[in-house]
Amino acid sequence: MTDTRMRQGRAALAFSFLVQGVAFALLVTRIPAIQDRYGISDALLPAFLAAVPVLAGVGSVVTERVVRRVAPSLVLRWAQPVVLLALLAVGVGQGMIQVALALAVFGLAVGALDASMNMLGVSLQRAYGRSIMLGFHAAYSLGGIAGASLAWLGAHGGWALGVSYAPVVGVLLPLALVGSRWYVDAAAGPVGEEGGTASGRGVAFAVLLPFCLVMSFAYIGDSTVSNWSAKYLQDVLGSSEQTATVPYNVYMVMTLLGRTLGDLGVRRFGAAAVVRAGAVLAAAGFALVAGAPGVAAGMAGFTLLGLGLCVLVPQTFAAAGRIGFEKGGPAGSDAAVARLNVFNYVGFLVGSPLVGVIGDAWSYRGAMLVPMVLVLVTVGYARSFEGTGGRYGDGHERARAADVGRDGHRL
After folding, report:
1. pLDDT, average across residues 136-162
2. Which helix H or strand E contains 7, and what residues bound it?
3. If 0-12 CB within 10 Å is exposed, 13-18 middle and 19+ buried, where does residue 401 land?
4. Do residues 371 and 220 make contact, with C-beta atoms less than 8 angstroms apart?
5. Nearest alpha-carbon partner for 386 in 339, 322, 311
């Protein structure tokens, strides 16, 4: 594979991550408007919201089976337009059944999209022989910021959902289809002694368990910030309603910054060190939030959370993909990524209700200590992110252990 082809594949995949960030942000930030449009009651809303990650998990599991027969790039090429069209359908539907179907399609397609995007990212990083995975997730964060900003404009202007969604879908859908021409599949690199010749046999769940737990803990932390930061600042720390909207924006900006610089950290210090540092920073952020005497300290805590949590998910996909490759070649890598992706949604489903139940039963300050403990547990699993001797890329000696996260994986 030529360097030009890999660069094209990298740019196309980064754009796909960005588009998905825009689409997901446009959905979740307009939930109140969706609820109002379709008359969804407060009692029924949690069922609608829970259905999306549950079906996304189903979509990820199905994708694991589909990519045994077709290339992940083909799954991504068609899953992304379906996600965008489902988003548009949410905005223009006329009744409860229609929005339920649109959200169901959105969830299933998102699962396929997330799994296939990360499969291609892991594969490309292996071909590069150095850490580039965090850059893809930085593009997702940038898309999330753009999508949230567009949603704010729509809400501020009083635009109907269809009016907000249609121009975005109209621009991004054809661009995503054109960009999909340059996706790169199965960048396996040279055959290595630890699995390059394997035929894609399955990876035991026990091997993936540390990564599944880290993924779940990271998303419990992320969902805590996205669902509870505004309420915490306003109800616990006494901020104004306007100020309460700031922590999540700060969190997203710090996530973008951390992921933009994170690949350099992996190349310099290794994957395990970056995971440890991220977990410690995130735990410190939750501790600061829980003990914050005022709004400024709370803001500082959410800032630390963005810098800490942002590195965990990309690194976890990369490390699990490396293990899968060692056990079963490119097909094993794809299977590991698809299985791990399910725990993205597990963490998302568990995080928000967990904090809410503890907050109501005890206190919201105390509730912030639970994700703090969980991300600290990640420090104990950091050793799993170290390499086992596999090296991907072109085999040059310059791909030394530190440059590829001490494992040659596609972080």
Report:
1. 92
2. helix 3-28
3. middle
4. yes
5. 322
Residue 248 CA to residue 138 CA, distance in Å, equals 16
CB 103 within 8 A of CB 28: no
Give the Cβ contact number of residue 61 at 10 Å: 17
How much is the pTM?
0.89
Report CA 271 to chain centroid distance, whole Å: 18
Q: What is the pLDDT of residue 222?
A: 95
- Judge whether residue 188 has pLDDT over 60: no
Give the single-character DSSP code of 293.
S
Averaged confidence pLDDT in the chain: 88
pLDDT-based confidence at residue 107 (cuts at 50, 70, 90): very high
How far apart, in whole angstroms, are the C-alpha atoms of residue 325 and residue 70? 18
Task: Give which of 38, 48, 47, 49 is closest to 94, Cα–Cα.
Answer: 38
364-404 pLDDT tens trace? 999 999 999 999 999 999 999 986 333 333 333 333 333 33
End-to-end CA gap in the chain: 20
**Does residue 22 contact residue 150 with C-beta atoms inside 8 Å?**
yes
Residue with tokens 């394997």: 198
Q: Look-up: residue for tokens 């993936």?
A: 208
Task: Note whether 58 and 114 are within 8 A (CB).
Answer: no
User: Which range has the worst mean pLDDT, 112-126, 151-165, 191-205?
Assistant: 191-205
Beta-carbon contacts of 244 under 8 Å, excluding residues fewer than 6 positions away, are 229, 230, 231, 233, 234
Please work out, in degrees rounded to the nearest 5, the angle formed at the alpha carbon of residue 126 by the alpha carbons of 348 and 66: 55
